[in-house]
Amino acid sequence: MKLTHTLKKKYFEKTTFSPLTKNLKKPSAGFTLIELMVVVAIIGILASVAVPQYSKFQAKARAVEAKSSLGAVYTIEASFYSDASYYTGCLANIGYAVTSGTKSYYTVGFSSIGTGAANFVPSDTSQACTAGAGTSYFTAGIADGGGTATSSVSSSAVANTGNFTAEAAGNISKGATTDIWQITESNGLKNTTLGI
């Protein structure tokens, strides 16, 4: 019986393998060129969707700088008004300043100073305050995408004795549109020109 079993085993071992399957090589480890190309294509599609969304996210994050700066202008103007009973365009003289070397995307302040008490240096109504960089507005240091930083605010950013409209203008995205935010003496903050 053992002999038959051994013969059957040898017979099936010999007949189940064909000459084609005997000489096949073991499959090599690794990826084929097509598999790699598919992966690269998928990564390219994901990147084409993700990069613009990331740029928008960065621009929205930079807009927080404008809101924060204008909030500071409003606070300091409201504080000054409670002491002097008028608003002033001389931001530097009432304590508003931007730290030197700060990477700011927005120019913040007033383009002009109205007539009356608003154009005088606080606590000295004999000396007029002239509108300019470092006095009535503070300029941006950088722009997104290697563009030119905004160097001034629009003509609607004015400080008068009874009211003011302060502005923050900056290039925060790769587009050509300048992002403009304004705040008034009633603490009304609005985005007048969307630059995202």
Descriptive overview:
The model has no long low-confidence stretch (mean pLDDT 79). Helix content is 36%, strand content 17%. The protein has three helices and nine strands, in the order αααβββββββββ. With 196 residues, it is of the alpha+beta class. The strands form three sheets. It has a five-stranded antiparallel sheet, with helices on one face. A two-stranded parallel sheet has the order 2-6. A two-stranded antiparallel sheet has the order 3-4. The chain has one domain. The radius of gyration is 35 Å and the shape is rod-shaped.
Shape: rod-shaped
Number of helices: 3
Number of DSSP strand runs: 9
Number of separate structural domains: 1
Structural class: alpha+beta
- Contiguous low-pLDDT stretches (5 residues minimum) are none
Q: Largest beta sheet, briefly?
A: 5 strands, antiparallel
Query: Helix fraction?
Result: 25-40%
Distance between the termini: 88 Å
The assembly state of the depicted protein chains is single chain
Q: What is the N-to-C succession of helices and strands?
A: HHHEEEEEEEEE
Strand percent estimate: 15-25%
Mean pLDDT level? 79
Cα-atom radius of gyration: 35 Å
The neighbouring-strand order within the major sheet is: 5-1-7-8-9
Which tags fit this structure?
196 residues, alpha+beta, two-stranded parallel sheet, single chain, 36% helix, 9 strands, 5-stranded antiparallel beta sheet
